[in-house]
Amino acid sequence: MRSTKTSRCRGALGALLTGAMALGLSTATTAVAATPATTRTTAAADCSGSVSVYGTLDDGRLTYSQIDPSTGDRIKTLIGPDLGFTPKAMATLNFNTVLVTDTAGALYRVDVKTNNLSLALMSAPVQIGTGWTHDKLVYDGHGHLYGTAGGVLIQYLVSQDKPAGSQHIGQRKEIGSGFVLKTLASSGDDRLLATASDGRLLEYRVDSTGGWSSSQLQPSGWSGFEKLLSPGGGLYYGATAAGGMYWYQDVNPDDGAGGDIVYHNDDPVDVSGWTQNLLSAEPETAECVGRQYAYVLPHGAVPRSELDDPHHDYAAIDIQVPTGTPVYAVTRGTVSHIDGGYGNGIQITGADGATYIYGHLDSRGVAAGATVTPGQYLGESGNTGQSTGPHLHFEIRVGGVKRCPQPMLLALYDGASPPSPGTLPTGGCSY
Description:
The chain is mainly beta. Strands 25, 26, 27, 28, 29, 30, 31, 32 and 33 form a nine-stranded antiparallel β-sheet that branches. A five-stranded antiparallel β-sheet has the order 1-5-4-3-23, covered by helices on one side. Strand 8 and strand 9 form a beta hairpin. The N terminus is likely disordered. It holds the Pfam family Tachylectin. Keywords: Hydrolase, Signal.
């Protein structure tokens, strides 16, 4: 079971990670996971989903870290292989795809595969462009890649999850000049978060014509951060020169004001250990709202078209995702572990009266008997039990009767209110 840690434990973990990175002792299969020390009965923030952070070390190795958005706990850090070039800027497109530039201006697509214990590349980084001399890159999760070069903010359209070149990253548009920023992140659809060298926390919004507006969220106090990240939902993460990682929640991220930002400085993610020279968060993976239902995977894990496929000879669905893909609770309920043909399976007895089953997980991140909230991390997809390949088996039962999960998954993927479990069909979704 994952639970929160004391600051002392976090400091020890940070020192361990710092030592491993600085001394070059970590290999491609090294995992530095958070060790539970104490249990907190209530979350520090009403947030759900997952925070996935890619990074690079000074020696060119790739890193992956995962943070619980509700508690600020670092769940794990994995250190992978050398990218083969000197990274300069980085933007995460989705859970398995990262864009990285080198110091010569070449743009690479890095295809990642990861599970609970290792981080590797699907293949060697693919060069997909030249002339990318940007000092910073961020992706907003909605098709727009932003970069700064010489103080100019530039917008690009990304039309594929795994772009192959200029045909998939184009429509270059200069948004404006004067963007001399210390850090840059994206907090949502055409929304940028930044800090200035004088410590101001700033927000920029870009409209459909390329026009932009700015807001000062905080007039000072943010100068200590060398890197800034946001997985959406009003969650902000700042990494210091000393390797500390701190987290904040903007209670109303849509109001263009920072007076409601909640500070967790007394309970950081880690007080040290974040020695990466680049950090980039997967966009739009966390939410801080009182939802009744949440999507069960990272939004970019599979295309929408995969969610309406018929499957099995009964109402259920198999979603093909790589081993190690985070899996989230669809609604509030109580967890029980199931095994057998489901392998590492999880069953949630929902507060709505329905039963939700997750099968073939690589690992389970919640204990039996735990109460979970919508979007809470449950574990990671895998290939355990009676399975012929990595995937997530998902099914819904109401009164013991299996219901087609496809309509609910499609609605949650679209950000719409899903149909109630009792109204889901019992047929038409199987072979």
